[in-house]
Amino acid sequence: MDEWSADRSENTSTFPWLLLQHARLQPSGVAWREKNLGVWQCTTWVQALDWVRHLAYGLAALGLQRGEHVAIIGENRPRLYAVMLAAQSLGAIPSALYQDAVATELAHPLELTAMRFAVVENQEQVDKLLSVREALPLLEHIVFHDPRGLRHNTAPGLRSLDEVEALGRHHQALQPELFEQAVAQGQPHDVAALFFTSGTTGLPKGVVHTHASLIDRARAGAAFDRLTAREDVLAYLPAAWIGQNIFSYAQHLVCGYTVNCPESPSTVAIDLGEIGPTYYFAPPRVFEALLTDLQVRMDDAAGFKRWLYRASITLAERAQAERDAGGHPALRDRLLLPLAKALILAPLRNRLGLSRVRVAYTAGEAIGPELFRFYRGIGINLKQLYGSTETAVFVCMQPDGGARSDSVGLPAPGVELRVSESGEIVLRSAGLLREYYRNPEATAEVLDADGWYHTGDAGWIEPDGQLRIIDRVNDVSRLADGTLFAPKLIENKLKFYPSIKEAVAFGAEREHVVALLNIDFAAVGNWAEKRALPYSGYADLAAKPEVLALLADCVAQVNTDLAADARTAAVQVHRFVVLHKELDPDDEELTRTRKVRRHFVAQKYAELVDALYDPARQSQRTQVQVRFDDGRTGSVQADLQLVGTKVQPALHQAA
Q: What's the CA gap between 431 and 426, in Å, rounded?
């Protein structure tokens, strides 16, 4: 293996080759940890290689061919990562799919790619595939990781990964050179993985990435943040999302650090505290949930402790703001800060499970400035980045000393970026998709003849070189009077408030802006309990007059903020309604990555939106179809109050 490995340079890597390198250079290093029955189990790099080799032989014995696609469905599990590497070793193409997708959603990618192989985590995923198998005649093999509930299932082609490994050991004895030969055939320009977009405007598209494109971006991000093999990462977000793939797969294999897999989604907070990752990624909603839980606990603390907490946070945020601006904290703050760190800030980071974090990133949505100030203030090196499935994540990154809440960073190494005359962000890099799978029309729409990728995002480059995103180009429109209307800008401001979980703003070709809101059930529920306000569930709480007044105050504060800028003063929210149900991916209102399917929501709630524009209407009865947890469909109805808000005069005149 040493001679063969030496034939490869850093620029001709594939993921299986990187695995071989780590097994050779750090055989006893920990590649994966997984918590099982409360105990962390370690897999070394040399053990990982043996695992991958046996799985590859087993899949080859079942007939997996170079160029075929393999579906991977489940939570983050080392064994499923090993399956991805085994498939890539044979020249096959793994495609992780969202584990919370319903059966009909899984059918589309399986049919599009004519998959014969699906490797899944457990009975839940097996049952989904079996329920749509008649529509997928090519689906020949369904392989499961967890045998619970499946030992007596005799469906054709159904077998366990244990059986595949046993078959692999037998096959290896017959063809001992097959694995190394197959890996040696792999080239950087070979397709490494197929990712599916979130599908905000239609069916998800398959994004084709090569080993070269993914490894290039993984290396660029690693160099930017000086990542080493000593990092610890917690893999808890959907494996189907390219962001999780980059952090827990591509950069894992580039750097050789340890990836830790929680026991279950319900234990993530506990597991986070036990692992103490050094390199951490979370969308803003996760950082918000951590802070909300912390604030609930602090509200129940003794008076002096609450005072000490607030004073320490204020001090820490003020000092960090000075550092981020390139200055130095005042002498008094520098003297008091060590005391605040010892009494509050260090225990707080430990409580959050972030005491060892060296680099933390957030992306996907804009993060509220309050959240950003809080985490950076307590000593978390939280930064924003910008990227997408098509760009292999790392397009813009914030340097340690240049993190801001209102931008997404500087172009990452190897990225050429500009803003077109129409205001669209376009870029070139070695990390771009090869194509959309079997969709040349869509490919031609985003990749031009000169290699520029058209992101579909609108924004501008700040004087310091950082990129600022305002919305999707297709969602930017104008009010009836010609005022520019970017709904995402308003929605993000609304969602900065802990009481508001989701917001959808409307105003295109209308005289003013209105919004549909979802409450954050946990945050508002805690607020209600402290005021002895009884409620029976989400719909009841969302309809309480006191809750409507709470959200009206939040919207009024957003309007005040919008009025302070001449460019946004005219897009203040005039009326809103709090929906009686949460927007849900199962109801097709959100994508699996929690992005609003704006046009679908506009159609589904069109009657409600029209009522918001009728000043004579104070309430509106609505009925919408929903999908229940057991898969049944039904409808929910309610009389919803239409709430007017105070609109502020513009504080500054437009230039």
A: 14
3-state class (DSSP) for residue 620: strand
What confidence tens digit (pLDDT) does each residue in 492-501 have? 899 988 899 9
pTM exceeding 0.70:
yes
CA separation for the pair 135, 111 (Å, rounded): 8
pLDDT score of 635: 86
| Nearest by Cα to 118 from 57, 127, 8, 604 | 127
- The pLDDT of residue 87 is 98
Show the tokens assigned to 589.
Answer: 């209102």
**Domain residue limits, the chain:** 2-210, 476-644
Between the alpha carbon of residue 114 and those of residues 95, 108, 135, 202, 440, the distances in Å are: 12, 10, 11, 20, 18
Tell me which DSSP letter residue 447 carries.
B
Taking the alpha carbons of 362, 218, 470, 235 in that order, is the dihedral positive or negative? negative
Place of tokens 């299932």: 153
The beta strand positions in 170-309, using DSSP E, are: 191-196, 206-210, 232-234, 258-261, 279-281
**CATH assignment, 2-210:** 3.40.50.12780
Nearest partner of 96 among 122, 71, 66, judged by Cα: 71
Instruction: Write down the pLDDT at residue 16.
Output: 98
Nearest residue to 587 (alpha-carbon basis) of 622, 623, 631, 625 = 625
What is the C-alpha to C-alpha distance for residues 19 and 82, in angstroms, rounded to an integer? 10
CA 362 to chain centre: 9
Distance from the Cα of residue 358 to its chain's centroid: 20
Token pair of 72 as six digits:
């991977």
d(CA 575, CA 616): 12
The CATH code that applies to domain 476-644 is 3.30.300.30
Distance of CA 438 to the CA centre of its chain: 25
Positions in the chain whose pLDDT score sits under 50: 1-8, 654-655
Check residue 573 and give its pLDDT: 97
Cβ contacts of 525 within 8 Å, gap of 6 or more: 535, 541
User: What pLDDT digit, counting tens, does each position of 274-302 carry?
Assistant: 999 999 999 988 898 888 888 878 877 88
Please state whether 432 falls in left (phi above 0), alpha (psi between -120 and 50) or beta: beta
| pLDDT tens figures, 588-620 | 899 888 889 999 999 999 999 999 999 999 999
User: What whole-number distance in Å separates Cα of residue 280 and Cα of residue 235?
Assistant: 9
Can you give the C-alpha Rg of the chain in angstroms? 26
d(CA 115, CA 117): 6
CB 54 within 8 A of CB 103: no
